Amino acid sequence: MSDDGRTSDNSAIQEIIRKTRLSIAVITFVIVTLFAVIVRYLYKPLAATFNFIPDVSISLIVGITFFLSIVGLFLSLRMSRQVLRIVRDYGSRLQKLLNVTKVLREEMYEDILLEKVMDNALSMTNSDAGCILLVDDGKLVFKVAKGEESGDLVGAAVEPGRGIAGWVAERGTTARVPDVAKDNRFDPEVDGRMGCVTNSILSVPFKTSSEVIGVLELVNKKGGYTYRERDEEIITYLAEQAAISITKTRFYEDQKNYEIHLTDMLLEAIDFHISEMKGHSRRVARYSNMIAKSLDMSDEEKKKLYFASLLHDVGFLKINSDHAFKREEFMRHPAVGYEMIKPINFYSDIAPFILHHHEWYDGNGYPSRLKGDDIPLESRIICIAEAFDAMISTTSYRVPVSFDEAVAELKRKAGTQFDPWLVDVFVSTVEPQHVMQ
């Protein structure tokens, strides 16, 4: 919560409760007074009980009561307007926060995620400027900065504990500072570098279950206002959701990095294991990508096809290189590759494409003798791309043929070995300058 460590219930609800209690008190006073006056003058047997009421004119008492009723009505109307404003404001923020939370959950790239968090935090609190700092090698590093002169701030590092941001990062506690001039934690080199005169600050930690991974700091609420408890609550919740999303994007990026490096290692191993196939997988991936672009495949589909093309011959790693081109051994490599790739989570989706890349369109291929559209589209694409490279490459295990001869062979076997539609797509796209060696 705020810098003094206090915890409180929802501030909007507390404000509504306070105003409601005041209105009820006025109304109760008016009712009790009227009741007392009525009993005092109309019910003689009980009159002695109310002797404390001065013997004044009914008109005066009614006048006073009427005045209090008007005051109560005024307070009630004023309270109602304020309550409605609070509810609308809070409801709008909550709706925006729910929408933002959904967007943050779906974002997979940290730099884009942080920009979205910053923009929404500024909008929700109506702030002039702000920044996001993340913990990196023991220091706080500016990742996003929004302000008049914050362009060169990204990448700058802050020593642990410096400024309000450093204090928040060390303690994992929110700081809501209405006047930085009266707060000795304020450091202009850390908290005042947004290009504006810093008056007030709201600084909130990004916390996971085990550590603080960064800080979100907002500077100067527009109109000269200071940050309220409602601002703190909504931004604290935003920071909690952002911390979860940041952790997720880092895991995704680590996984992607691991996937890329593992793929490169496998390709190098294939090239080393069978020298006649050096570069073959990368060339097949390029030709496959040409077909994918012509088919207007989605980015996710292109990615899967690309990795399947790169690893379509990975099964050769478990086949003796001296026997790799013997028919019986050669026919084993799709199934062997499938069994190698399937247990790896981030490869499991492409395993079927590897398994079936030697199926024929007429059903005479292997290992499953699938036919036509029963063969995965990606496998049919790889089949064409691989055959074209095997025919035309000077480093292939086969005697190379000319570009025109390779295209003619694809057309000749369209409908038997190859999908005729995909052959048409490929030959209408590929040009001699696209040939790789």
Structure explained in plain terms:
- Mean pLDDT is 83; it is low at 1-9.
- Helices cover 54% and strands 9% of the residues.
- The protein has helices at 11-42, 44-47, 58-106, 110-125, 163-171, 188-191, 229-273, 280-294, 299-310, 327-330, 333-341, 351-355, 377-392, 403-412, 420-427, and strands at residues 127-136, 139-146, 157-158, 175-177, 201-207, 212-221.
- The protein has 437 residues and is an alpha+beta fold.
- It has three domains: 11-106; 110-251, 2-Layer Sandwich (Beta-Lactamase); 274-434, Hypothetical protein af1432.
- Helix 3 (58-106) runs parallel beside helix 7 (229-273).
- A hairpin with a 4-residue loop joins strand 5 (201-207) and strand 6 (212-221).
- The longest helix is centred in the first third of the chain and has 49 residues, at 58-106.
- The protein has a six-stranded antiparallel β-sheet with strand order 3-2-1-6-5-4, sandwiched between helices.
